[in-house]
Design brief:
This protein has about 280 residues and is α/β, with parallel strands linked by helices. Helix content is about 55%, strand content about 15%.
Length: about 280
């Protein structure tokens, strides 16, 4: 199979590594050609233009931030004479209609890999498939590209709604937490005294704040639910602040008890705690 990977960020490079393992022939392109210079494999052709990359390939995977993905997908579709276009962005509404309206001789596949470039064993990973035209055919394409991955089919609206909580919430919290931690003077002692829960929070910060600037910004900007979520966070934090300012131990304890009871009903979150 001949595949073009457009975008050589961390995930684009991961894609190339996976496709090399499957002995696919790969064309790689990025607007920053310097990202291609360290690609050393007989399976990979480094391309200087988008036109060169998509010429005569079976599949084009667009692995770039959603703020420019739609424009690039349109440009790719103009250059292709046949084949499959795969979008891997984490928010789908900005690109979904573009994918749906591609020419009939092009096959659109909308997926959201629910893992990052650190993934090693695909048998342990999941991919969300957002059907565009023919879910069965699109599923077969994904199975060919990512063997052993568990495929979860989900509607476009449900996907982006849930990404408000899966992505926007963690990213908003990361912005706030890193700002507060940055105010601490003695970082060396903080590190020495850090306990388990603090270290888990640091893992969340690392997972979000090491993303590319455009990827992070796009997750917040293009998700319709982010504004409402950020307002709700503000209200909740204000409620907690008011409760603490009353300096009433009993009232504060009651608030925390309510939150612990609410958490006890979220069985899936408790299961995640042990993964």
């Amino acid at each position: 199979m001949d595949i073009a990977v457009i975008g050589l960020g961390a995930f684009g490079r991961w894609l190339i590594e996976q496709f090399i393992k499957q002995d696919f022939r790969i064309k790689a392109y990025d607007v920053d050609y310097g990202r291609l210079e360290n690609l050393e494999s007989p399976n990979v052709i480094r391309c200087r233009t988008l036109e060169e990359a998509v010429e005569s390939v079976d599949v084009v995977v667009v692995s770039i931030p959603v703020n420019v993905a739609g424009r690039v997908i349109i440009e790719v579709s103009k250059q292709m004479t046949r084949g499959v276009i795969v979008d891997v962005s984490s928010i789908k509404k900005p690109v979904y209609d573009i994918m749906k309206n591609l020419r009939e001789d092009l096959k659109p596949v909308c997926i959201h890999p629910l893992f990052g470039p650190a993934a090693q064993h695909l048998g342990n990973e999941r991919i969300a498939l957002i059907p565009v035209r023919d879910s069965l055919e699109e599923r077969r394409i994904v199975e060919r590209l990512f063997p052993e991955v568990k495929i979860i089919e989900v509607d476009i609206n449900e996907h982006d709604k849930l990404m408000t909580y899966i992505l926007s919430l963690t990213h908003l919290l990361s912005i706030v937490v890193v700002d507060i931690i940055g105010e601490i003077g003695d970082m060396e002692m903080l590190e020495k005294l850090a306990g388990t829960s603090f270290k888990h929070m640091c893992k969340m910060l690392n997972a979000t704040l090491t993303e590319s600037l455009d990827t992070f910004t796009s997750i917040l900007y293009y998700n319709d639910g982010t504004k409402q979520l950020s307002s709700k966070l503000l209200r909740e934090f204000s409620k907690i602040a008011r409760t603490i300012s009353r300096e009433d131990y009993t009232v504060l304890k009651r608030l925390i008890e309510e939150k612990q009871e609410a958490y006890s009903r979220l069985e899936f979150m408790k299961r995640f705690a042990f993964i």
